[in-house]
Amino acid sequence: MLNSLLSPNTQWVLLSTLILGMAAGMIGSLAYWKKQSLMSDALSHAALPGVVVAFALTGTKNLLIMIIGAAVSALIGAWLIGWIRSSSRIKEDTAMGMILSVFFGLGIMLLTIVNRTAGGNQSGLDNFIFGQAASMVRKDVFTMLALALLVIAIVTVAFKEWKLFLFDPDFARGLGLSSRWMNAVYMAVLVLVIVIGIQAVGVILMAAMLIIPAVSARYWTQSFRTMVVLSAIFGGGSGLIGTLISTLGKGWPTGPFIVLASSVLFTVSLVFGSEKGLLIQALQLRSEKKKQVQDSNSSWTKVPVIREGE
């Protein structure tokens, strides 16, 4: 078992999920402040039909080709969400739920058809449901690692632009920063981090890798920069720990273990977080009540005593 954990391929897989978790955490922070956390869930489910169609057209399990297929499918889903919202009275969250359900149902139907064809049941496409990082070969690992590093670079280099785009769009437009282009780049990096992570985490649980680290980081800081850094640390740590645990068993899916690791970090943040953590809130409430009691007693002792004859 130890030799398996220390094998070169396993080490590369662990490194790739570490970097993937960092990229997902950083993009998750952008989605959190843009109030589009549900968008990541919708697009991860919308990517499944593209994966299956890419395999059906090529007949080979090439991760890069499948990523392209997943990206096309996810972008179509994003466009349909925007179209439904702009051309009808349906709200954005409702449109996301519709696209999520329809595309995921279509993906499962196509997956069932492909698995019944000759050689389809040996394709390993089922791993895209819950994720299976251990099944990745060296070429897949390098592809995912390179694209995840690209996402991190985009967020890091243009950090000031992202901050203006999220918190002061009017000032950003005054500086000549196009909101249309920023929205396009945001959607592109969101889709990219989703499609490169679905083999490791799965289409069902990929959204958790984007949402949970960002929410956990929010309990520790009020600073956007610090939140992005903490979210990257939480996401990377969850990816590393979850993948490491999944390698201990034969055929254990990676996604659930990564989500469980993220949930543990979220629970710790929820209880002990320095910003609105339950423990801090309880201590502050206790301190306020104690202060109120002291102020009440102090005011009572200062009440003037009226003596007889005065």
UniProtKB/TrEMBL annotation:
Subcellular location as annotated: Cell membrane
Keywords: Cell membrane, Membrane, Transmembrane, Transmembrane helix, Transport
Broad class of the protein's primary localization: membrane
Topology of the protein relative to the lipid bilayer: Multi-pass membrane protein
Transmembrane segments: 12-32, 64-84, 96-114, 141-159, 184-212, 224-245, 257-280
Superkingdom, natural source: Bacteria
A Pfam match: ABC-3
Family under the similarity heading: Belongs to the ABC-3 integral membrane protein family.
Protein name as catalogued: Manganese ABC transporter
Native organism: Paenibacillus ihbetae
